[in-house]
Amino acid sequence: MHLDVYGDTLCALVAATALASSGNNVQLHVPEGNVAMQLARRECPFREPGLAEMMAEQAESGRLLLCTMQTPPHQASTVVWLALSPDALELAHAVVTALPTDRVQPWLVVNQSTFAVGTSDSLQQALSARAELSDTDCAVVSLPDLLIEGNALQSFMRADSWLLGSEHLWAQNLVAELLRPFNRRRDAVMVMSSREAEFSKLAITGMLATRLSYMNDMANLADTLQVDIERVRQGMGADKRIGDAYLYPGCGFGGLSFSRDVMSLATTLQGSGMQPQLLDEVLRINERQKEVLFRKLWQHYGTNLRGRRVAIWGVSFKPETSRIDNSPALKLMEALWAQGVEVHVHDPRALGVLREWAGERDDLVLHDDPYEAAAGADALMLVTEWKAYWSPDLFRLKMSMAHPLLLDGRNVWDPDFMKQSGFDYLGIGRR
């Protein structure tokens, strides 16, 4: 089958690559910008496991072809796949209204972009008005982006669920055929209306964010009650009505898509005349939580931090990515700099983008080696739970630090073991 995928998002690259890997011929239309330039140099803009290798393989096979936005759809194509950024709604309409009408087969537009609820309906109206010229029964379906960043390729090719919003049976069948190679273990496609699919995407993100912020509140309360939040978390997770997913407290969540989806849901509620009180509080809790490690450090040193040296391990908003969008580390560093702290940072992938974000600063030093970052530090803060940080050389770490103080923003280390190893340990609700 021939498909045309539009967008420069992670979702666009994953969808185009995965669909090409199953035998389809895919034209990937990329807007002008950094992503397009990197792709033209045969570089993968996103550090996702397996993505660069599979993209190169599909391009070599001839099934994945890089195009501009001005390139027309393939003459044999009847499927247009939109995976544009949330601020590219006008571009989505431009793509739809520019589709050729001299086709015998109807157009199917798969909207995987995260736009406002009701966007697929408005695209359907634009497409139907266009299609009247050729008397074809064209369709727009919603297939929300449910990719898990850091495991994006596998979360497409082995998805736990697909939310398919469609009012056309033939369109449902065609999408099911496209997803069939990735939907063999069980039928993971759930069919609903387009608005229901779009709203479900936002509601899922809102629920996950709510659980995270709730657990962070509970962890902060555990500190005052002198109980270990890890025991509480296990007790909560054992209740089948709750389960253990997204119950891990930490120093706040980041990520452009995650945060933007929560804000979009809050805006949707506000636009309907309802006050998004719960979601507003979720976002406020998360922003406060991004400074929890700073507050613990502040209290530990009796509010006197000027001239101290602090090491940070991990600045990407989550492991297995180089992105720092809304990362807790950014707000943490700003708080440290405001108190005259010299910050030394290590991250396996995100140092380049951190350098662009921060610019040249005398109070920021980037290190390629995590132990060099910690050398001479008055404290080490773990912000992103990269696996390489889970089992460090504790003897080397202790001997190199000026003060053996560990602030564990993800509760990956065992408090008792760290204390027995000679460290002062401060976690999130841990004892």
TrEMBL record:
InterPro entries in the cross-refs: 6-PGluconate_DH-like_C_sf (IPR008927), NAD(P)-bd_dom_sf (IPR036291), UDP-Glc/GDP-Man (IPR017476), UDP-Glc/GDP-Man_DH_C (IPR014027), UDP-Glc/GDP-Man_DH_C_sf (IPR036220), UDP-Glc/GDP-Man_DH_dimer (IPR014026), UDP-Glc/GDP-Man_DH_N (IPR001732), UDPglc_DH_bac (IPR028357)
Stored PANTHER family: UDP-GLUCOSE 6-DEHYDROGENASE TUAD
Pathway: Nucleotide-sugar biosynthesis; UDP-alpha-D-glucuronate biosynthesis; UDP-alpha-D-glucuronate from UDP-alpha-D-glucose: step 1/1
Enzyme class: oxidoreductase
Gene3D superfamilies: Cytochrome c1, transmembrane anchor, C-terminal, NAD(P)-binding Rossmann-like Domain
Keywords of this entry: NAD, Oxidoreductase
Name of the protein in its database record: UDP-glucose 6-dehydrogenase
Lineage top rank: taxon: Bacteria
A matching Pfam family: UDPG_MGDP_dh
Lineage of the organism: Bacteria, Pseudomonadati, Pseudomonadota, Gammaproteobacteria, Pseudomonadales
Organism: Pseudomonas neustonica
Domain (UDP-glucose/GDP-mannose dehydrogenase C-terminal): residue spans on this chain: 311-415
EC number, as in UniProt: 1.1.1.22
Alphabetized NCBIfam families for the sequence: NDP-sugDHase
Recorded family membership: Belongs to the UDP-glucose/GDP-mannose dehydrogenase family.
Reaction catalysed by this enzyme: UDP-alpha-D-glucose + 2 NAD(+) + H2O = UDP-alpha-D-glucuronate + 2 NADH + 3 H(+)
